Amino acid sequence: MTIHVPADAPTISDAVALAKSGDLVLVAPGTYHEMVKIQTPRITLRGESRDKVVIDGQLQQPDGVVVTAPGAAVENLTVENNTQNGVLVTGSAKAAAGQTGPGGDYDTGSEPVTFLDSFLISYVTATRNGLYGIYAFSAQNGVIEHSYASGGADSGIYVGQCKPCHIVVQNNIAELNAVGYEGTNASSDMYVVGNRLVGNRVGLTTDSDHQEKLLPQQDTVVAGNLVAANQQPATPEQADGGWGIGIGIDGGSANQFLHNRITGNSDAGVVITATQDIPPNGNQILDDTFAGNGIDVGFTFPNATKGQGNCLRGEGLHTVPSGLGTSAACPIGPQTASPSGTWTAPKPPNGIPFTDVAAPPVQPQFPNAAGSPATVVPAAPVVPDTARVQVPTASLLAATALVQTS
């Protein structure tokens, strides 16, 4: 059954409350000041027009859409001006209730890890949200695709606390965020493929963090992404001050970074370092294309925690320490200590409030949004064949982005 908003129900929340598993909630153009909670399995929430169906939190509600039921799809709409998240998908009751820890993230304390199983976020625009634009936390078997995230005061797209994740993040644009994509304690069968991560303060991080469970972060494949020009000043300033970095591996291990185009990041293209007492081990940087970065690849361990088994395959790169393409060439023994060096990073400019980030351009529509039936979300996503992923062109998804590469 299709439930139309406002023809059959005056608000999106009313329509979702009426919907049964397998139903489609189809929303007509308009601005809706509400927080939508999807608590019934296998509901599809879809806007008739991606840029004209707007869930606007008016900076008075934490989230635009909260999904706590399996098999739900959120498609073809815009979520903006929420104090925490644009779209939150979670199996955590504390996260769904908006209970953040002292650092602003979801520190769920003694709550047992419970995963939401299967979700789809597709053709969603998330802009000017106070924490994350699109956030999958304690969730598995999902896809985030064809979406646009900007003005995330922490990250545009975030996947946290899942092992194994079975999550695919593909063909998205993240720009004008503090961090474009962040994967924290997100491990195993985790894929970040074919995204445009351009014009943030930091393009992508994969890291371990004691604030979340399921330490350490491991086994993510990052392939075929454009990671460029991540020193945009007109962005929110993250508390730890990251700036000018394409990819940061912070206490993450056994990740693969292959066939990415990593260009024009004023501090560094790729940085590998430790998180407190968690070392980064066995990360592989394989056949990426680098140009115009402050340095291309840096290994740095300023504290007692060191990494080992990290390796690089690529020639003619500017690395710190120098010569990593030889001294840490892939393949390498897992117990081989990673060398460490330092460099002078550019001073980051002050950020701007997330509410002041530039409005996004009009984004592509979900095909035949009004005429297509409810989406059947698969039990597990189709995993990309990363062996066939090529280095993207510098124009990847440029037509619908604000920040261009040179």
Automatic annotation (TrEMBL):
It comes from the Bacteria. Residues 119-285 form the Right handed beta helix domain. Coiled coil: none annotated. This is Right handed beta helix domain-containing protein. InterPro entries: Beta_helix (IPR039448), PbH1 (IPR006626), Pectin_lyas_fold (IPR012334), Pectin_lyase_fold/virulence (IPR011050). Pfam families: Beta_helix.
